[in-house]
Design goal:
Layout lengths: L1 H7 L3 H20 L2 H26 L8 H18 L3 H25 L4 H19 L11 E2 L17 H23 L2 H11 L1 H6 L4 H27 L1 E2 L1 H5 L1 H14 L6 H23 L6 H16 L4 H9 L9
Antiparallel strand pairs: 1-2
Length: 337
């Protein structure tokens, strides 16, 4: 918590706003209906996976455009062991994280050992995600294209051990995950590894000349980001109670993951969270408005996201959070990209 205090030092309005937001999130299930609660829940999910992706791109400078790969791997692994063997989601979560970490390590080894970086590394991540999607579309053990469904015994009695229960229970789970990852990031970016990541991001050759093992620290960023994203995938699978390859691994899912950090501010602590709270509610408002008008347009939400991204890049190249932080008087490296 000292790290958060350092970020907000000298900015009482920001500290007050953060306290009010925290209190509102804690009591949200008591104040809103199920639909609004689901919107906030999905917003927190994107804030969580956005923070995970931000570690890899925002701090270590490694662009992944196939990050849905780890969402799908984590979700499918935990769900399959739950359905077929009765393994608890928390144990299945460990398996999902290990599988995602293994894939990430394989991508990292292939890329970094052979000097694949920049746009070519991004294309490699897309290729692996698409290959995995096609593989799972023919993987009958997990339903193939027909989908993989988790049993829903109840939504009234909360069973945290088996991750079965009401939307309110899932809400508090993802809230705890998002806050926990935020606090972990505060400590992480102030550690030696965090400073090494930022050195690699700014100038890899200079970082290597200073004695930083760039291969090791880039691998650590990729594996850690993938593992955390897989954790988010496990949560999403048990919340939705179904998995389809096109939804779990599709490129559109990867784009949704990365938009919040970019809009909020890459390489900042609050950026991915603020970006999620801007983008997800706007998308839901657009969907509601189109439904009221009786308009059915495939892909309109993603077109809208693209327009929002263009506006932000044009008007606030560093993202919304750095601009907002300056208005609140927040100083420090965590408040700027």
């Amino acid at each position: 918590m000292r790290g958060v205090g350092a970020v907000l030092r000298g900015a009482p309005r920001a500290a007050t706003g953060l306290a009010v937001l925290g209190a509102a999130l804690l009591v949200a299930p008591l104040l809103v209906d199920d639909y609004l609660l689901s919107v906030i829940l999905i917003t927190l999910y994107f804030a969580f996976v956005g923070q995970a992706w931000n570690l890899m791109m925002g701090y270590a400078g490694q662009l992944s455009l196939g990050h849905a790969l780890y969402v799908g791997l984590g979700g499918y692994a935990a769900a399959a062991f739950f359905v077929h063997f009765g393994l608890t989601p928390w144990a299945g979560m460990v398996i999902g994280i290990l599988v995602a970490a293994a894939f990430a390590a394989g991508i990292g080894l292939l890329a970094f050992r052979f000097g694949i970086g920049g746009v070519y590394f991004a294309l490699l991540t897309i290729a692996v995600a698409e290959f995995t999607r096609i593989l799972f579309e023919h993987f009958e053990w997990v339903g193939a294209t027909g989908g993989f469904f988790l049993p829903v015994e109840n939504r009234e009695i909360n069973d945290l051990l088996m991750l079965r229960g009401s939307p309110a229970m899932f809400y508090y789970v993802i809230l705890a995950m998002t806050v926990g990852l935020f606090l972990a990031n505060v400590a992480l970016i102030r550690s030696r590894m965090g400073y090494y990541w930022m050195a690699i991001r700014e100038d890899q050759d200079a970082a290597q000349a200073l004695g930083i093992n760039t291969f090791r620290y880039k691998m650590m960023a990729v594996v850690l980001s993938a593992s955390l994203t897989a954790l988010g995938g496990v949560f999403l699978a048990f919340y939705n109670n179904n998995l389809f390859p096109i939804d779990a691994f599709g490129i559109h899912r990867s784009i949704e993951i990365i938009l919040a950090p970019i809009i909020g501010g890459l390489g900042t602590l609050f950026g991915p969270i603020l970006g999620a709270f801007i983008l997800t509610p706007l998308g839901e408002v657009l969907t509601w408005a189109l439904d009221q008008l009786g308009v059915q347009m495939a892909g309109v939400k993603h077109l809208f996201y693209g327009l929002v991204l263009l506006v932000i890049i044009r008007s606030l190249p560093g993202g919304v959070w750095p601009w907002f932080a300056r208005r609140l008087g927040i100083e420090g490296p965590e408040a700027r990209p």
